[in-house]
């Protein structure tokens, strides 16, 4: 009985220790993401660094948080900034056009304006899909030509349509947490890191697929 109790206590302690480790990781990486994305143009590199950290942790690779995060953040920073700016600009242009078509529809509800609005909505959603799938691709092909990367990301968003749907739902986490001041506190401490952790989980199969393509071509 005493032996069983000691084994139970040991198992419980290990689980509590693991839980505490993950809480610390979530909080620290969340703060790092927020701090390094304050200039806004560095939001994409910041999210990608957090994503890569959790990818490592899920693969049971124990890497130092601060040193590894800033190493990942600085890797190919020029490439990441270009990708982030291109995708952000595409989303911004799409949203502006949706607003313009909405105003046109209020003034003149013609089929042409309605179709134009739907086209812009599809475009914005497509860019969002592509943005999410550049995360796993930047882990496997960090130096690939940007346009090739974007086209491959679009292909993957269609191939893994169920995971794309889950990724869209995950995207709403930080948005929902902005609704109420108390929820905003959660966003400050674990909101962004929880989002990239869930992306690391959802896109694990995507990375396996991409790496499998490399092996098949060897």
Describe this structure in a few short sentences:
The model has no long low-confidence stretch (mean pLDDT 88).
Descriptive terms for the model:
single chain; mainly alpha; 218 residues
Detailed description of the structure:
This protein has 218 residues and is an all-alpha fold. It has one domain. It contains nine helices and no strands. The chain is globular. The model has no long low-confidence stretch (mean pLDDT 88).
Question: Which secondary structure elements does this structure contain, and how are they paired or packed?
Answer:
Blueprint lengths: L1 H35 L6 H16 L6 H10 L2 H31 L3 H30 L5 H14 L1 H16 L4 H22 L1 H13 L2
Helix pairs in contact: 1-2, 1-8, 2-3, 2-8, 4-5, 5-6, 5-9, 7-8
Return the structural class: mainly alpha
Q: Provide mean pLDDT, rounded.
A: 88
Backbone CA Rg: 21 Å
- Number of distinct beta strands: 0
- How many angstroms separate the termini? 56 Å
Unreliable runs, pLDDT <50, ≥5 residues? none
Largest sheet: none
Number of domains: 1
SSE arrangement, N to C: HHHHHHHHH
Oligomer: single chain
